[in-house]
Design the sequence.
């Protein structure tokens, strides 16, 4: 349980493990329901990407779905780097728009570490506070460095 008293639905960890081991979804978003529990919000279709253009298309699809409410996001990056090496890495993104309600921002921020604990072994974390922060190229370069 987080400092905010909010729990994480076991389905969240199950989904993370399925994405990590079986690439079941390209992305997933999570929300806090009734200020009590973190649940799965939206799922991206399974999509194996091996080039940056296709991966960016999927990322842009995710970006379009993010609104003014904060969300926790898992995104399964998949592309081939300049040297021809295939890179696949799951990343955690904390989406917390500047123009969302202050109470929501506080609850999501204080619950973030609890959510991350459900994502055992996640090595990449990003935070985005507006659409400009959700920059695929910037995230992709960081993913490549850590791969």
Sequence:
């Amino acid at each position: 349980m987080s400092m905010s008293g909010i729990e994480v639905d076991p389905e969240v960890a199950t989904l993370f493990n399925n994405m990590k081991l079986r690439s079941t979804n390209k992305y997933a978003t999570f929300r806090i329901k009734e200020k009590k529990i973190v649940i799965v919000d939206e799922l991206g279709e399974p999509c194996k990407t091996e080039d940056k253009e296709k991966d960016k298309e999927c990322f842009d699809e995710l970006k379009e779905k993010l609104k003014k409410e904060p969300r926790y996001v898992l995104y399964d990056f998949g592309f081939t780097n300049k040297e021809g090496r295939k890179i696949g890495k799951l990343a955690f993104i904390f989406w917390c728009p500047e123009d969302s309600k202050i109470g929501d921002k506080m609850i999501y921020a204080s619950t973030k570490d609890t959510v991350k604990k459900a994502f055992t072994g996640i090595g990449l974390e990003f935070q985005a506070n507006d659409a400009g922060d959700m920059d695929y190229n910037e995230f992709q370069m960081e993913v490549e460095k850590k791969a």
About this structure: The mean pLDDT is 94. Strands lie at 7-8, 27-33, 37-43, 71-80, 86-95, 124-128.
